[in-house]
Amino acid sequence: MTSRPGFDAVLEAVRQAFVGADGAPAATEVRPLGPAEAGAVLGDHVALAVTDRAVLADLVPGREITGAIAVAADGGRHGALVYTTAATGAPPAAVAAAIEAATADLAGTVRRLRNEAAVLDALHSTGRELTAQLDIDRIVQDATDAATKATGAGFGAFFYNLIDEFGESYTLYTISGVPKEAFARFPMPRNTAVFAPTFDGAGTVRSPDITKDPRFGKNAPHHGMPAGHLPVCSYLAVSVISPTSGEVLGGFFFGHPEPDRFTARHEYLAEGIAGYSAIALDNARLYERERTLATELSRSMLPVAPPTPGLDVVTRYLPAATGSKVGGDWFDVIRLPSGGTAFVIGDVVGHGVTAATVMGQVRTAIRSYALLELPPSEVLRNVSELTAGLFGESFVTCFYAVHQPTDGTLRYANAGHLPAIMIRPGEPPGQIGEALAQPLGVGSVFPQRTTGFPPGADLVLYTDGLVESRTRDLTLGIEWLLAGIPGLLAAADLGTAWDKLVEELTSGRHDDDIALIHVRHRGEDPP
Amino acid sequence: MVTMSERDVTGNALGDAAGSAGSVALEHHEGAAVLRVDGALDLALAPKLRQLAERAARLEPELLVIDLTGVTFLASAGMAELVRAHRGPTASAPLRVVASGRITLRPLELTRLVDELAIYPSLSDALVR
Cβ contact (<8 Å) for A323 and B17? Predict the structure, then answer.
């Protein structure tokens, strides 16, 4: 119901217009119109004489209406029907036309403002959706679709630059409005006279007919659009510029086969969506960079196992396949001055760049103490002290083992890490070093054990990502791993067999890092 | 008797691994603060446990109990928080940990944290003073 004073005055004026045959005011009644009714009866009109019997019978059933005028209120969101059943003189149509004429400007303004608000709403919601995304592929497609729709373009394209792992820039694109195949056989747009302002970030280009633009057709080999290109007459191109670096991330291009289709409004909308896209792409790149940095950092700190006489060593490091939890696991194989070899596997609690840097330092510390030929218990005790002092409360698990070929032994200590697997010829796989001590940074005493490591024996060190996850209990995971060992030992190629076993144990997706070392004692090489 | 409860739940944000998300609830039992942990106590949930353990410590309870009965996965990140609550800079009250079953006990044994933490088979045992 509308009860605004302005509208009441209008209704009153309309009522006065109904006069009987004798010239006296006729009795009128008012029937309010809801939003749907107002829309159906009035359309875009502010006032309208209603003569359709069926419509009137619908609105006011059972009355013999002789004259009726519908009036819009609140910009057409509501309204009212003023009607009479008396015999009237002047035709209501004339009155309606007079109101319509008097309010035409106003109605136009309301319509324009309403359209404006709808456009801003659309831009805002597009912006909100875009900037909540971290997936580059989705950002670019959603942005292209939204901008193509908002500009009323025949088709739209978004060309964007990415940097590959070698630091080389390359360009990808998305298309909206037409199938991607429509562009598949054309080369990437080059920095031609028409495209240059967009790729250089020199400002928006809007042309009623780009084929008449002085910059058009200047560049070989096509001198215009390549043969078979979708016809473009109206042209609008907007740069996407990173708000943090000022770098041009890409450009939106809109085309329409007819001239003069893009207005200042379309330009404004395209620029708005380009602005949101730039923020979204920036966020996605920063996120990606953090992830890649942690992975790269971890990888760069992992060693290539040096050749070790008499031993075959297979190592694997698999960063977490999902999420950004990469960075805490490591392994190391260290040739000692005395002729022995130290094997290290460990896991730093935490993820990302922080865990990766702590890992790098712990690894270096272990390396240093190892090269001093300290016994395993002393290596771990020193590193634990160092760790607690350097990183505050930290929690690093580590298995440290030294193979001494001169006496065929393996001496080891274990700081809260999972037990290792030892397989001696003719025996089933067994676990060694279980629950010997607390993690580095927590414990202070690290008991040491010695066992035989004869030719033909195998040693496996691994991190928890291999045997446990949210859906896999540790105890069960270790059982499955032990069950997989005999098949592994029988395989022709140990590396391939490990890749297969890792795949089986983790069902192809591991949400934690995995590191492992497999040492096979094939017998001492002759000197 | 429970007089107050706060709860934090980890979401499954940004393509995080599938699996049960965990939660931590802080409850008060006559002078004892009880942190009840449910689901996977891993890297995703550990910060919530730390946050609520620190909040609990500020209320200066006589006893802090971390109840792991409902934990379905105890990762190193979770164990690191137990050590922190036990002897970290903000630890004030004595800590008791409720753990039963191999899912929580096994990791605590492998890391020898059972030597250091006071472990109880049930919440009612842990609340006996």
Answer: yes
Q: CA A509 → CA A287, B18, B21, distances in Å?
A: 21, 10, 17
- Closest Cα in chain A, distance from residue B69 (Å): 15
Residue A341, strand partner residues: A335, A403
Tell me which of A466, A470, A473, A474 to substitute to probe the interface with B (most B C-beta atoms closer than 10 Å): A470
DSSP string, A127-146: HHHHHT---HHHHHHHHHHH
Q: Which amino acid is at A445?
A: V
Nearest CA-CA distance, residue A471 and chain B, Å: 7
Cβ contacts of A493-496, under 8 Å, gap ≥ 24: A494/A312, A494/A314, A494/A518, A494/A520, A495/A314
Q: Which of B14, B75, B112 sits opposite A438 (nearest CB)?
A: B112
Sheet architecture: strand order including A205-207: A169-176, A155-163, A248-256, A234-241, A205-207
For residues A467 and A478, give the distance between their C-alpha atoms in angstroms, rounded to a whole number: 6
H or E segment at A39? helix A35-42
**Residue B84: which of A393, A418, A474 has the nearest Cβ?**
A393
CB of A443 within 8 Å of a chain B CB? The answer is yes
Tokens of A209: 């007919």
Question: Per residue in A169-198, pLDDT tens?
Answer: 778 888 998 887 877 777 777 777 888 889
pLDDT tens profile A128-175? 888 888 888 888 898 999 899 889 999 999 998 877 666 677 788 889
Q: Name every chain B residue with its beta carbon within 8 A of the beta carbon of A511.
A: 16-17, 19
Instruction: Classify strands B63-74 and B95-98 as parallel, antiparallel or unpaired.
Output: parallel
Interface-testing mutation among B12, B76, B86, B115, with chain A (most A C-beta atoms within 10 A): B76
**Angstroms from A276 CA to nearest CA on chain B:** 20
DSSP β-bridge partners for residue A316: A516
- Cα A494 from Cα A480, distance rounded (Å): 18
The residues with which A412 forms a beta bridge, in sequence order, are: A401, A449
- A323:B102 CB<8 A: no
Residue with tokens 């217009």: A17
> How close does chain A come to B72, measured CA to CA in Å?
7
Mean pLDDT, range A88-94, rounded to an integer: 67
CB contact under 8 A, A438 and B75: no
Q: What is the pLDDT of residue B3?
A: 44
- DSSP-derived secondary structure letter, B114: G
What DSSP line would sit under A155-209, residue for residue? Answer: EEEEEEEEE-TTS-EEEEEEEESS-THHHHTSPPP-S-TTTHHHHTT---EEES-
Among the ranges A113-117, A242-246, B106-110, which has the highest mean pLDDT value?
Answer: B106-110
Query: What confidence tens digit (pLDDT) does each residue in B58-90 have?
Result: 889 999 999 999 999 999 999 999 999 998 888
Query: Judged by CB atoms within 8 Å, which residues 121-180 of A form the interface with B?
Result: 134
Alpha helices in A334-391 (DSSP H): 352-371, 376-391
